[in-house]
Write a structure and sequence with these properties.
Elements: E1 7-9, E2 22-24, H1 33-38, E3 41-42, H2 50-54, E4 64-66, E5 84-86, H3 93-108, H4 111-119, E6 135-139, H5 143-152, E7 158-163, E8 171-172, E9 185-188, H6 202-207, E10 212-216, H7 225-233, E11 237-241, E12 261-263, H8 274-290, E13 298-299
Parallel strand pairs: 1-2, 1-3, 3-4, 4-5, 6-7, 6-9, 7-8, 9-10, 10-11, 11-12
Antiparallel strand pairs: 5-13
Length: 303
């Protein structure tokens, strides 16, 4: 495809692009049919929701979709055969791993309780939990999982790794039930697929160690919400959630009112490190096209 036929849509009007490429950045709902038909490289807006994805079928000549997220489950239904899909692997690694660590330490050291006490002007000493000497399971040992392991590696803990495929020092997720009774902290970092939807359900919660902690920085659908509520109410486990199902979590949802859960509003990747890293990735992808080099982070999505 000639360079001058490449038209990019991206949310950043000042994105650095190779010579000969054209950039469009005005809102997709204001684009004419002619403008939509021009687009060959589409970068859905970050955290822009379904509208940013639902317009893809209106782009008859789009060839590349470059996501600004690591997850890709919500875009599949909007793609057509032959379209190449790329995710933002590497962009969110540290940001998401940082949040997983922050949630883990906050829950173990009772930070949410102390924040409430501070607001009430209440000095109440208590013996907290600790990460030291715990067993931590990383469920989803991709780039974010490896980054998270690097962050916690200096703690005196045992780390168990799980992924879809077994490899050296990494167990298959299919065998996680055998280990759950010995695990103190479960950290979910898997993509949402048919295999991982409702991965943690009543069966797994019943196997988890009494008083253990589950952290979800993956997708809300990886946990069965009703089963989680049951386990929280029984006082069996604690939870820290960056993502929920449903999401956004409705104001009246019972999860908000459970004392054993810490909830943050899907901010794992949305930190100050996001935009510079994301811009760099998109620019590098365009440079690869410009020089007829293969792009990175391709997702094999077609069924």
């Amino acid at each position: 495809m000639p360079k001058n036929s490449q038209t990019i849509w991206c949310q950043w009007p000042d994105l650095i692009i190779p010579e000969g490429f054209k950039l469009i950045s005005k809102p997709t709902d204001s684009l004419s049919e002619a403008e939509l038909s021009e687009i060959t490289f589409y970068v859905p807006g970050y955290m822009a929701g379904v509208p940013s994805l639902a317009c893809i079928p209106k782009m008859p000549n789009v060839k590349f979709v470059q996501l600004l997220t690591a997850g890709f489950d919500d875009v599949i239904e909007h793609l057509h055969p032959g379209l190449a899909l790329y995710n933002a692997q590497g962009v969110h690694d540290y940001s998401t791993a940082e949040l997983a660590l922050a949630l883990m330490l906050a829950k173990l050291r009772f930070i949410p309780e102390y924040v409430k006490n501070q607001a009430a002007g209440k000095w109440e000493h208590s013996t907290t939990g600790s990460l030291a000497d715990k067993t931590v399971a990383i469920v989803g040992y991709g780039s974010i999982g490896k980054t998270f392991e690097n962050l916690i590696a200096n703690f005196p803990i045992k780390i168990i790794r799980f992924a879809q495929s077994e490899r050296e020092n990494v167990f298959p997720i299919a065998k996680i039930n055998d280990y759950l009774p010995t695990i103190d902290v479960v950290v979910l970092i898997v993509p949402l697929t048919d295999l991982t939807r409702n991965l943690f359900n009543k069966e797994k919660f019943s196997l988890m160690k009494q008083g253990s902690l589950i952290i979800n920085v993956a997708r809300g659908g990886v946990i069965n919400t009703d089963d989680l509520l049951e386990a929280l109410r029984a006082g069996r486990i604690h939870a820290a959630l960056d993502v929920t199902d449903p999401e956004p979590l409705p104001m009246s949802h019972p999860l908000w009112f459970e004392k054993n859960v810490l909830i943050v509003p899907h901010v794992g990747g949305d930190s100050s490190s996001f935009e510079p890293r994301a811009r760099k990735l998109v620019t590098e992808q365009l440079e690869r096209i410009s020089h007829n080099q293969p792009m990175v982070n391709e997702i094999g999505w077609e069924k």
